[in-house]
Each structure stands twice: as structure tokens, then as C-alpha cells.
Amino acid sequence: MSGAGPRQETSKGWAMGPLIAILTVAALVAGFFLAYALLL
Prior knowledge:
By secondary structure, this protein is mainly alpha-helical. The protein is built from 1 helix and no strands. The longest helix has 29 residues, at 11-39. The mean pLDDT is 80.
């Protein structure tokens, strides 16, 4: 089980920020490629 990464209960609230950022960037990239495909 060792080496699986830190398992701290306090990291749940902290991980929400990067998760939202990653989802936002992914949505922007997906929207960009979708608009690019439609403009072709």
C-alpha cells in the first residue's frame, strides 16, 4: 500500500481547486477544437 500517494483527509478540499481548473481548461480546449472543426 505504500507509495500510493498521500492519503490525507484535509486534501479533499484542496484538490477541488486544481480539479475545477483542469476541467475548465479541458472544456475550453474541447470547445476550441469543436469550433475549429465547425469552421472547416
